[in-house]
Amino acid sequence: PIIDDIKPPPWHKPVDLRIISLVFNRASSLKRQLDSLNTAEYFGDKVLLEVWIDRSKKNGNIDSETYLVAKNFTFKYGDVRIHNHTRHVGLYGQWFGTWNPDPDSNEIAVFLEDDVSVSPFFYRWLRNVHKKYDRRKDVAGYSLSGICPRFKNSRGNVRGPKTEICILYRASGSWGVSPNRENWFRFIEWYKNTSRDPTFEPLIEGIFPSRTYQRFMKAGTTDEMWTMWHIYYTYVNNQFTLFSNFPNEIGLTSHWQEEGLHYSKSDTLNTSAPLLTKWDKKYENLPDKLVKLDYDGKIIE
Description:
Layout: E1 17-23, H1 27-37, E2 47-53, H2 64-72, E3 78-84, H3 90-96, E4 108-113, E5 116-118, H4 122-133, E6 139-143, E7 166-169, E8 177-179, H5 181-194, H6 208-219, H7 227-236, E9 240-244, E10 253-255, E11 292-293
Parallel strand pairs: 1-2, 1-4, 2-3, 6-9, 7-11
Antiparallel strand pairs: 5-10, 6-8, 7-9
């Protein structure tokens, strides 16, 4: 998919946190997410909430109920901007074309699809991990999900050693992601250049996402899986995503697995994992040396 024509308007006020909410036509999901954002702590930092509404692929319309939810929402901690895309852009356009930070800013951005709710402590965690690890070239970004799906050998989730507060894993983690800014924009530039080659396939032998992407290729629906490009890019550049490693897969986001591109109606209203509702000071003891897990969940020595 082409994303070059998506030009987010600049925002000239200083921002510490930019929340990018990616939505289409699930008004109730957006309402639940926005309400959860109002329960979070922001420490008096400057916060900008941007809601990006995609248009229907069939008729080019904006969903009116979703727009009204965004328009009528009062964010207690900062400014709100609503962006109605000028055309259908799909998942690629939503993820790759909506963050336009000031070059001189040090803002943190977090991407949230509409069926994700946040923990009150999501920003506390992001502030800490960005400060600790942003200079590392091998950190692609920070997932807010407590779940790390295993990509190789057998289905299920991977877990780090119980002694670890967080781990690095070879996945993108799209259930709430805060990119490492420098590495993210290098990835976007690589995608723009590489995707122009119609013969290129971002596949990694032996992992489950590659098999899924191959099925999408046969069905002509690869526009539904942007994550395969990021998985490939991080693999060839030896980058990882940082995940929390809290007990019982507790996360900084919950994903509601609602009906849409990737879930059927029978999956709806089942959250992926419980939200973190109580902060423990030990979560601030971030390690200097991070455990790295491979696609099969085994530690990379």
